[in-house]
Hints:
Layout: E1 6-11, H1 16-31, E2 35-39, E3 52-54, H2 56-59, E4 64-69, H3 71-81, E5 88-92, H4 107-115, E6 120-132, E7 138-143, E8 146-151, E9 158-164, E10 167-174, E11 176-181, H5 188-191, E12 203-209, E13 219-222, E14 227-231, E15 239-243, E16 246-251, E17 256-270, H6 276-284, H7 290-294
Parallel strand pairs: 1-2, 1-4, 2-3, 4-5
Antiparallel strand pairs: 6-7, 6-17, 8-11, 8-15, 9-10, 9-14, 11-12, 12-13, 14-17, 15-16
Amino acid sequence: MSHIRLCALVTRFADARVAESATQLADHLSARGVTVLALEDEAERLPGLRARFVPEAELAAVDLMVAIGGDGTLLYGAGLVAPRGTPLLGVNRGRLGFLTDVMPEDMLASVDAALAGQCSRDERPLLSAELLTAAGQSARGLALNDIVMQTHQSGHLIDYETWINQRFVNTHGGDGLVVATATGSTAYALSCGGPIVEPDLDVLVVAPICPHTLSDRPIVVAARSVIEVRLTDRPDSNAEVVCDGRPLGRLAPGDRLTITAAPQRITLLHPAGYDYYRLLRSKLNWGRRSFDVQH
């Protein structure tokens, strides 16, 4: 008998396709004797959903969380469950879906497998960011994919330094920097020229964003590394720090951004037959001719 009695649905009901899947899943779970929770902000969009609408702070106090949408939806869910270790299943109703790997037609069967304890558990590391201002104020954030330091003004380059394990690495000029986990190597870091990293490798990708110098290339470092970023002391230097798309704060000259491995981990659930390389072939159109892609 399943030990799962509470399940949270994380989604955006404004999307009709997502709302349809959420309604179908909520009915299915309710019929299985599972209580469904959803975010109270979504109650007006889908009042007929068979769910209990609760504040965000209560949404992660469940046995299972299902994210229906794109990878951004799953990353939001990951931020909620990170302190608790709640397993997370992603149903793809977005575009690429590297993390939301369950297709809509397989949703009910995959959720049933999760209820029966038949899904594979995939633990993924998290990154921790600490933004320490010159005035002594501190802000912290977690990320499953990446931590991004980027220029606050479009079209304005920023100059910054990187340090790894207290050793100076380089002075950079460009739009910013992405520090990604192996999980996040297929996200923003990939568009910055970074490599695709197998998820179970214990490494980080450090990738400059639109570097002014062509020789300023991404590097791969050990996940236990302590990465520090500092802006150079120029009057127009101003950047923002973002953790998985969530703003953490502003970075100014004299401030320090420190990125390390977090003690918490995220547990993703995959249905039977999950194959990372098959996922890459599907999402990146590997092996397909241009005619096949167009048609």
